[in-house]
Design goal:
The complex is a heterodimer. Chain A is mainly alpha-helical. Chain A is built from 17 helices and two strands. In chain A, strand 1 and strand 2 form a beta hairpin. Chain B has a single domain, classed as 2-Layer Sandwich (Alpha-Beta Plaits), CATH 3.30.70. In chain B, a hairpin with a 2-residue loop joins strand 3 and strand 4. In chain B, helix 1 runs antiparallel to helix 2. The chains are: A mainly alpha, B alpha+beta. The interface between A and B is medium-sized, with 17 and 8 residues.
Chain lengths: 444, 112
């Protein structure tokens, strides 16, 4: 298995440190580190919580009461299906090496299908490879779960599950490979900086959401009937769980219990706090009211914006990235959506794509020129920020185009396999909880 | 016999109930209702989507009384439900033809 370049750097650094400290610890990097292992396992578990609890509540609370369970089920369903797809083929395509150098630029090989060839004793740096696989699997699962927010209250559950399975393997895995797939992978070699998934997770999931929202069409009665959220309480609780889990998402992306994880902790706490305040100010200036939904939307926008930069920036960088991320997402939700008229129902595009896009580009300007933090790229090699910016632009364009085309294709395949993607009008008006699942959120 | 229907502000219900109980009026039926009159609705805001809520939550009290109690009862409701602001509600008085107590079969003013 090709090790990630960032892991290689870390190992080199650790080896050097070990060499300095004691010759006996020369091979320390090749053995399991219990601290790193413990941290990666904890990170993985809290990242898992982000999807079937955090995102699910965040989205379900914003849904009309007749569709709450369907929205929740779309998130939970996305998680379980994507995770299985990840074990079957996603991991191999994302992180397996491809013998063909041209193909290696875009996709990994099939040598680890069903985790073939990976032993429980194998290490990924200083912790078990199995932990790495699960950690990355939770990223794969949340990415497509994010997209569900754009298409709630109108998609067939069967189509959604089929879509998730194919998309995880055909779209998510290759994108992950291009960005994080090690030597020979297109954007990895170009030196794109994406600490924990601004492009891979948030731009990717948010754009997939928008594409789906346009393909499947608006909800019946949009802008004519009131579409009020069932409970902002649930949404706020979901946002809190997301924030909590994000410490594993960003902190775990340091791949060890180390000082870089500590930096990611600081920025993961600070940027969302700033972003929430900015959102509240914008709301007050626009509507003379500060809403709880606005405050927690700001938190999520800040989390998304800092994700690609969590372990690269200092507190000033985190402040600016969080603040501007919030402004960008606020505009996406309040302005752009109305102007363009698409039904990105819960703003997966407005918040995750736009704040993720901002973060992915801005990291070039706010990343510290500190070669112990930087992975690769023009900034690390020669302090060339503009050069780094163009690499970031390249990564954004490549990921964007791949997601755009891939999502359209997978949508039509999933739609074909399940006989149409959309519920009929009667089911839609009755509510998907009752029509599709035979359940009700509240039996009062 | 008369029926008194009073639409009041929900938070005034306890005051009205206490005032009537003090005057010896012991029974009533209470319903949560929605509606609008001169008082305007309010708006709700969700991520920039503003919803005007036309119907406001109100409480409806219904009582049936003998004719001689009606005037005092109406006075008590007006006093206890009043805030002086728009939206305090209205009281309707209508005649009642017959009242029957199910348990005993009593009719007329004895059943009130």
């Amino acid at each position: 298995m090709t090790l990630l370049k960032k892991l290689v750097y870390k190992i080199k650094f650790l080896s050097l440190l070990a060499l300095l400290l004691s010759p006996a610890m020369l091979f320390a990097a090749d053995t399991l580190d219990t601290g790193d292992t413990a941290w990666m396992m904890v990170s993985t578990a809290v990242v898992l919580l982000m999807t079937p609890a955090g995102l699910a509540l965040f989205y379900a609370g914003m849904t009309r009461s007749k569709n709450v369970l369907n929205t929740y089920a779309m998130v939970v369903g996305a998680f379980v299906v994507a995770f299985v797809a990840w074990i079957i083929a996603g991991y191999s395509i994302a992180f397996g090496a491809n013998d063909n150098a041209t193909l290696q630029m875009f996709t990994g090989g099939f040598n680890h299908i069903l985790l073939n060839g990976i032993n429980w004793t194998d290490l990924s740096g200083t912790y078990p490879t199995y932990v790495f696989i699960v950690f990355q699997g939770t990223f794969a699962a949340i990415t497509i779960a994010i997209a569900s927010g754009s298409i709630i209250e109108r998609m067939k559950f069967s189509t959604w599950l089929v879509f998730v399975f194919i998309w995880t393997i055909a779209v998510y895995a290759p994108i992950t490979h291009m960005v994080w797939g090690g030597d020979g992978a297109l954007l990895f070699d170009a030196g794109a900086l994406d600490f924990a998934g601004g492009t891979v997770v948030h731009m990717n999931g948010g754009l997939a959401g928008l594409v789906l929202a346009i393909l499947i069409g608006k909800r019946t009665g949009l802008n004519k009937t009131a579409m009020k959220p069932m409970s902002i309480m649930l949404t706020a609780l979901g946002a809190a769980l997301l924030w909590f889990g994000w410490f594993g998402f960003n902190g775990g992306s340091a791949f060890g219990a180390n000082a870089i994880a500590g930096l990611a902790f600081l920025t993961t706490a600070f940027a969302p706090a700033v972003a929430a305040i900015v959102w509240m100010l914008l709301e007050y200036m626009t509507y003379k009211k500060i809403t709880l939904l606005g405050a927690v939307s700001g938190i999520v926008a800040g989390l998304v914006a800092i994700t690609p930069a969590a372990g690269f920036v200092d507190v000033t960088g985190a402040f600016i990235m969080g603040a501007v991320g919030s402004i960008v997402a606020f505009y996406g939700v309040i302005g752009l959506k109305k102007k363009l008229g698409y039904d990105d129902s819960l703003d997966a595009f407005g918040i995750h794509f736009l704040a993720g896009l901002w973060g992915a580009l801005a990291v070039a300007f706010f990343a510290l020129k500190d070669n112990d933090l930087l992975w690769d790229g023009p900034l690390k090699e020669s302090g060339d920020r503009m050069g780094q910016f163009w690499v970031q632009v390249e990564s954004v364009v490549v990921v964007g185009l791949f997601t755009l085309v891939g999502t359209v294709v997978v949508y039509y395949i999933a739609s074909l396999l399940t006989g149409g993607a959309r519920v009929d009008e009667e089911e839609e008006s009755k509510g998907l909880d009752e029509a599709l699942h035979g359940e009700k959120a509240l039996n009062l | 016999m008369k029926k008194i229907e009073a639409i009041i502000k929900p938070f005034k219900l306890e005051d009205v109930k206490d005032a009537l109980a003090e005057a010896g009026i012991t029974g009533m039926t209470v319903t949560d209702v929605k509606g609008y009159g001169r008082q305007q609705g309010h708006s709700e805001l969700y991520r920039g989507a503003e919803y005007i809520v036309d119907f406001l939550a109100k409480t409806k009290i219904e009582l049936v009384l003998n004719d001689d109690e009606v005037e005092n009862c109406v006075k008590l409701i007006v006093e206890s439900a009043k805030t002086g602001k728009i939206g305090d509600g209205k009281i309707f008085v209508t005649p009642i033809e017959e009242v029957i107590r199910i348990r005993t079969g009593e009719t007329g003013s004895e059943a009130v």
